[in-house]
Specification:
Layout: H1 2-14, H2 17-38, H3 46-64, H4 69-73, H5 77-82, H6 87-109, H7 114-125, H8 134-163, H9 169-190, H10 204-213, H11 216-222, H12 229-255
Length: 256
């Protein structure tokens, strides 16, 4: 697995995809933070992280589209299948390489949040009584950051699975973007109401299923500054199921 991990990590920087992802990611994160916090002189990061989640729906598939699709296109898939490495190690090596690029980009983007503390301290200094508490702000940022990391990890696993089903990188990217957008937007559909304030979907069973599929429903708890165990298990389950299915795809392909 380590050899596959190093190979994939190196490939992201041999090809322009790694530089493009990091460059676009950090640029978009900086602009989003600028317009949602600095210009508005706000210490709330809710809008910032919400915008980033929708950006992930497009950026992460660009990171994962080459994972397996490129191997099939270049006819190097058989070399992987006959190499002295387990299929599980191969899948996890590729997944962890993409996850490393994502985590590195997210950690680097934390520098964007430094002005929030400056704004918070200035507002507290300008008031006769303390209405800004840096502690709660910190817990909210940590909770949202952890939630976004878990979301990204799940999206990467889904993208890797879809990449294993095709040899066309563009198809892998388009399908991944579509699937992730549905999982993100389904929360809006589930909470939509009509003019009278009545929910458009009133059937409990349908709402329950949509809530389970929705990735934003769990994230909202992290956005309050709490680390939710159920949400952690949910995202970990998405990662496990996606990678398990990817392993099954290649186990079938190895013996076919």
């Amino acid at each position: 697995m380590l050899a596959i991990y190093k190979k994939e990590l190196r490939a992201y920087f041999i090809n322009p995809i790694g530089y493009v992802f990091i460059g676009v990611f950090l640029t978009f994160a900086a602009l989003s933070c600028c317009y949602t916090t600095i210009i508005q002189a706000s210490y709330s990061t809710t809008n910032y992280f919400t915008i980033m989640i929708f950006a992930f729906a497009i950026l992460i598939p660009l990171l994962t589209m080459r994972s397996f699709a490129e191997e099939r296109k270049l006819k190097t898939e058989q070399l992987l299948l006959t190499a002295p490495v387990t299929i599980t190690g191969m899948v996890f090596g590729k997944y962890l390489a993409a996850l490393t690029i994502y985590l590195g980009s997210m950690l680097t983007s934390l520098v964007n949040l430094i002005p929030i503390y400056v704004i918070g301290k200035q507002e507290r200094a300008n008031t006769s009584y303390s209405v800004i508490h840096i502690g709660p702000v910190t817990s909210q940022i940590v909770g949202e950051f952890v939630g976004v990391l878990l979301l990204g990890a799940a999206f990467i696993a889904i993208g890797v699975l879809i990449s294993s089903l095709t040899e066309n990188q563009l198809s892998a990217a388009v399908v991944s973007i579509s699937v992730i957008l549905v999982m993100v937007l389904i929360n809006l559909l589930n909470n939509a109401t009509d003019r009278d304030g009545q929910q458009l979907i009133s059937n409990y069973a349908i709402r329950f299923v949509l809530n389970w599929v929705s990735v934003l429903d769990r994230y909202s708890i992290f956005g309050t500054g709490r680390l939710d165990l159920a949400g952690l298990v949910y995202y970990a389950s998405l990662v496990f199921v996606s990678l398990f299915l990817t392993i099954r795809v290649y186990e079938k392909r190895r013996w076919s």
